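(Fold this chain)
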Amino acid sequence: MHYGSIVGIMRKHPQDKTGSCKFIGNQAEQVFAETMEGEGHEVAHSSMHEDCRKHIDFFLTKGGETKSYQVKSIRKFLRRNKGYNNSHALFEISKNQGKRDGTAFKTQSDFMVFFRKGEFLVFPTEGLKEVCTKYVEFDEHTGENDYENFKLKLRHSGGPKYGTKARVEELTIIPYDFLKEKLPHESYAHDLYKSYEADDRYDVERTT
């Protein structure tokens, strides 16, 4: 089955100036749905309420068991980066600076799916929350210009221009290799974006 109807459901973030994040995010969801159907899962898209409020994109059913999934797309961390980052997962820790109210903690999905070049990486959400709680350096900020492993980058969002309240979000990055060492995970291959240039300049080892 082709999930053409999925394209366009993902909302555009105010910081997505060109709309490319929304476009790639929609493609990621579509390809994930098709990939998992090929693995024998029955795929159902979430409702708008489940998507926006619970951060659930799909429900997959196999062998009579249904689980929920949130799909996170490949992306450039900064517009000046030469390519799409393939080495790190990006987590929204806080929607309002100082609170743990970002999707990293508020998603109600059973699993989080990271769309990398050549594969989907699937981790249990509760395990990711535990890793963030244990390893993210909540008192260490890198400012607004760049990311650093486990530390918080600030990002201004909203404001009168967008018709919403201005706020400061906090984000961090964690190497996929680190997450794979700490958590059970599954990998599913795909062929989308094989030609995209990877930018792995954030790939700094951390094993503790």
Remarks:
- Helices lie at 20-38, 48-54, 103-106, 125-135, 176-182.
- The first strand starts at residue 42 and ends at 45.
- Residues 1-8, 201-208 have pLDDT under 50 and may be disordered.
- The radius of gyration is 17 Å.
